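User:
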Amino acid sequence: MSFNQSGAGASVAKVSPAMVQPERMDKTVRKYANFDEMKADEYRYWQSRPAHERMDAVEEMIQTAYAIKGWEMEPDVPRLQRPFVRLACPWR
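Assistant: Predicted structure:
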């Protein structure tokens, strides 16, 4: 939910059922002996998540980076495009 902090005419955004997650957040606190162990655990976590969830996380990081820099993202611009490259087939 988001709140308007201006005071006058404060509004609350409505939450759609699709935005509500049925499972509860894992609130486990983990201690690591070193940085490499922490990064390995983080890597295992992200590899366990489905591809669409990882892509959503990437999109969220891109939007956050744009917001930090004060830039605006254009809503109609497709993301994560790669140039079209034609490779020669060696057996033809």
